[in-house]
Amino acid sequence: MSAVGLVLSDDLVFMSRISATAQALGLSVRQARTPSELVMLARQSPPRGFILDLQNPGLDLPALLAELRAACVPMPRVMGYGSHVEKELLQAARDAGCDPVLPRSQFVRMLDGHLKEWLGDSTGEAPTA
Fold first, then answer.
1. Which of 84, 68, 70 is nearest to 8 (CA)?
2. With the C-alpha atoms ordered 112, 117, 119, 123, is the resulting torsion angle positive or negative?
3. Ramachandran angles phi, psi of 73, nearest 5°
4. pLDDT at site 119
5. What are the backbone angles phi and psi of residue 98, rounded to the nearest 5°?
6. Which residues on adjacent β-strands are paired with residue 27?
7. What mean pLDDT is predicted for residues 17-28?
8. 2-118: CATH topology
9. Which residues does 98 contact at the CB level (< 8 Å), separation at least 6?
10. In angstroms, what CA-CA distances link 124 with 2, 20, 34?
């Protein structure tokens, strides 16, 4: 499998769905349940992309992104998803550099067709800086 991605999520059901989709596409993803675990995994093996659950407990997004930028040169794509009612949180993630940022329901609908893109590009290759 190629195009390893790192997913920040403490939701086992949601992570199972992401993993199954990745596997069906010939990709692999690893789960980090905490921001510090995500940084540790990124330092061990920089991924081709990050997927962040913006509702992850203890998430300080600007601090996390700064740590990830230091750990990963060049910085891969970072996408985020969260509750549609948390409009300020979604906008803050966009402002911090996450692209795309989607409501959770839209993320689920787009998962099959866009996971490769989120973890690199449509060919599964890592983006270039």
1. 68
2. positive
3. -125, 115
4. 86
5. -75, 135
6. 2
7. 92
8. Rossmann fold (3.40.50)
9. 52, 61, 65, 78, 79, 80
10. 8, 16, 26
pTM, entire model: 0.89
Contact 34, 64 (CB under 8 A): no
Q: How far apart are CA 84 and CA 124, in angstroms?
A: 28
- Look up residue 92 and give its two tokens: 């803050």
**Residue 121: pLDDT band with limits 50, 70, 90:** low
pLDDT at 3 > cutoff 70:
no
Amino acid (one-letter) located at 30: R
- Kindly list the distances between the CA atom of residue 78 and the CA atoms of 20, 72, in Å, as whole numbers in the listed order: 20, 12
Tokens read off for 127: 């983006």
Residue 1 clears pLDDT 70, i.e. is over it: no
